[in-house]
């Protein structure tokens, strides 16, 4: 519940004061891994400090480095962030969501409050949530129904699936199984009844110094995670017109990180895949301004196909979703939240992870090898790249993903942001020395955002 409360504060700050209000900020999977690892480390010490005091100093150190980064324009290093790094990191985040969904279900098997029938019903609800969400998504991409209906299914199919699947838990024998639901607490209360203000200044001096390297690691994580989220939310596929502001938003991220430490809440940052999904939901589809219809007929293209022609660039939707999170923390809505089965949450995690995976560049390259070559378009860019080079490029990305994911399963998980950041020098110095031609690299990799967006950080690689 505390996480949901700070979701509103992050949405308010970035939507009202941010230069990139399309980027949705919230608590991500990587920061959850980071916080849990710190907790595991300090609790194993002989005389451990108060966790919230220690994490408060970690966040303060990170916030200071955020501010220095913004003032010195270090966000210009984003010019070296390409699809190679973004796809690898996005692949990792997708699998983290899938893993979280599995953990939500497996923990019910060992929960004394749960029963075996309840756990099995939770698994069924998770699968149902996954299938129904993809069903609505598939219908929105077909030629069925009016285009307004398809747009409605694309925008609201997932919330409808969540409500419908939650209702199934109270139907017939599913209700008698009594599956576990989301835990809630009192309205606008801090976790476990503690005070809201964390007196982190009471931390012993030696632990203040120990918190510094953790703060540096958090800065590395947020530098990559938040900025990549912003890049993906302003990707080249979106016809944006308003300029970005990476430096200013990173300064604001330092502000929210400091406030999070002061309140003892997980620090928010840009969300993947929510940030690009948010922009996608604001895209206006239409016919291209200029088209050669005779050429389209000759090539067999759909003359009625719609393409993105504009994006509703505004601040209201980001603020509104944060405000709705705050509304959910009022008494009546807390009761509604308590009715949602945990299995539905697991299915939501699976859908978010699987949906992000199917659009990931690594997945698309792997599917290229499974696709019927006779049905592969003649103008497919990958046709111009040797298959061995495609596999080599994918192998490097999967190695980076595997190393990151493997480290997060150990006590060394605190260092996973460093591995993520190492993707940048690998792309800058290692990949160019491998047997790729310039034309092949131009097809396999490229800038994450348009030249218009990358101009604010000095262009792209």
Keywords:
single chain; about 450 residues; mainly alpha; two-stranded antiparallel ribbon; two-stranded antiparallel sheet; about 60% helix; globular
Give the gist of this structure:
Helix content is 62%, strand content 3%.
Structural features, described:
The protein is mainly α and 461 residues long. The protein has 20 helices and 4 strands. It has helices spanning 2-16, 29-43, 51-71, 83-109, 116-140, 147-168, 173-177, 205-233, 246-263, 274-281, 293-299, 316-327, 331-337, 342-358, 361-370, 387-407, 416-421, 423-430, 438-444, 451-454; strands at residues 25-26, 269-270, 283-286, 307-311. The longest helix has 29 residues, at 205-233. The protein starts with a helix and ends in a 7-residue tail after the last helix. The mean pLDDT is 86.
Write the layout of secondary structure elements.
Layout: H1 2-16, E1 25-26, H2 29-43, H3 51-71, H4 83-109, H5 116-140, H6 147-168, H7 173-177, H8 205-233, H9 246-263, E2 269-270, H10 274-281, E3 283-286, H11 293-299, E4 307-311, H12 316-327, H13 331-337, H14 342-358, H15 361-370, H16 387-407, H17 416-421, H18 423-430, H19 438-444, H20 451-454
Antiparallel strand pairs: 1-2, 3-4
